[in-house]
Amino acid sequence: MKIAIFLTGLIIDKTPTLEYIKHMFDDFARRNSLQIDYYCHFWDSTGLYPYDIDYQITKITVPWENRGSVDRAINTFKPREYKVSKFSDIHDHFLIYYKNKFKDNEWVQDTISMIEDQQFNKNLHPNFFIDNFKNPHHVFDKWWHYHVFYCRYVHVVSQAFSASQSKNLIKNSNEEYAAVIKWRYDVLADLISNNDKMIDAIKHCSDDSVFYTELAWEGNEWKEDLPYDINSAPVNKTISLHDGWWMTSNSVNNTLAETLLTKYSEVDDGQHIRFYKSIKSDEYQIKLTNRIQHNIIRFPESIPKDYNSKPWEYFHTLYQKNFNTKKQSDFRGPIDHCDERAKYYTIKYFNFY
């Protein structure tokens, strides 16, 4: 039986996750007589914005770390196909969203006209606004509003974009897989204790148009697991669906290759709510796998060498090491509260140095 695994997300160089993920899946394949084709999507760390800007000098950034090594990942997984995208590749999707969100706001629509005329598509240097516009403070405020909303949008949509690119690689391969699994470069799981659950899901994928993942909850932030069948969720309930990993049949993968990004982008809501609505709109049956995954997101600097031999012994220790400090970026505030930007409100207080 042959399956496809596509990997998405950011690669954090300070942790050796790639080799452990490969070992984890190789052991799983050996135990269950599986063949695996890997597909990889990567982000180019030089293309954070749709305009040229030295974000180290300007002190502007977005809440991602991306010091990953594409070459190391390719050497590790030896993918059948891979693709490298720039975050700025999402820009066209963003402009559609930005236009619609502020369709009655003349100030924003004027900003969009400036974007489409490529007035910001230049090298932003310390005197850019002063040198190029008669009213630099006014134009800067327009650009800053656009810039912050773009960062917020990419933060939410990048995972769906990455998954969509990977799904299309698999679809275009014309290979028939028993199941297609999405995974991340920073996630390990205990596939030994959960071997039977995982292989049963793979077998069922061959027969059913279903979507497997492990967790759903009411509202935007997780407080407790969904207490009822997600497929019978009341229409008035806000449902979030976990998107750290998932599994589908080959045919469902090929359909989602065409629909996921568009439907995900159309929903103006939280990341996991968007995910649920985009999957639900295709009317797939969603099956939750009873917490098959024991994962550590963004690992500590080291992982025990025998982790894959007995992962159940290390999960809680590694989790505590990883999450006992700061849980969100220093830039989360400015991005979430873009109207409260007094520090950056005009060029005078915008520190390019």
Q: Note the quaternary state here.
A: single chain
The portion of residues assigned to helices is 40-55%
* Number of domain units: 1
The largest β sheet comes out as: 7 strands, mixed
Compute the CA-based radius of gyration: 22 Å
Give the overall pLDDT as a whole number.
81
End-to-end distance: 57 Å
**DSSP strand count:** 11
Strand order of the largest sheet: 4-2-1-6-10-7-11
Describe this structure in words.
This protein is α/β, with parallel strands linked by helices. The chain has one domain (2-349). Helix content is 41%, strand content 14%. It is built from 12 helices and 11 strands. The protein has helices at residues 17-32, 55-58, 70-77, 91-101, 106-116, 128-132, 136-173, 195-205, 250-266, 271-280, 315-323, 332-336, and strands at residues 2-8, 35-44, 52-53, 81-86, 123-124, 179-184, 210-213, 216-218, 239-241, 246-248, 285-288. The strands form 3 sheets. Strands 4-2-1-6-10-7-11 form a 7-stranded mixed β-sheet, sandwiched between helices. Strand 1 (2-8), helix 1 and strand 2 (35-44) form a beta-alpha-beta unit. It is globular, with a radius of gyration of 22 Å. 33% of the residues are buried. Residues 323-331 and 338-353 have low confidence and may be disordered.
Outline the fold blueprint.
Elements: E1 2-8, H1 17-32, E2 35-44, E3 52-53, H2 55-58, H3 70-77, E4 81-86, H4 91-101, H5 106-116, E5 123-124, H6 128-132, H7 136-173, E6 179-184, H8 195-205, E7 210-213, E8 216-218, E9 239-241, E10 246-248, H9 250-266, H10 271-280, E11 285-288, H11 315-323, H12 332-336
Parallel strand pairs: 1-2, 1-6, 2-4, 3-5, 7-11
Antiparallel strand pairs: 6-10, 7-10, 8-9
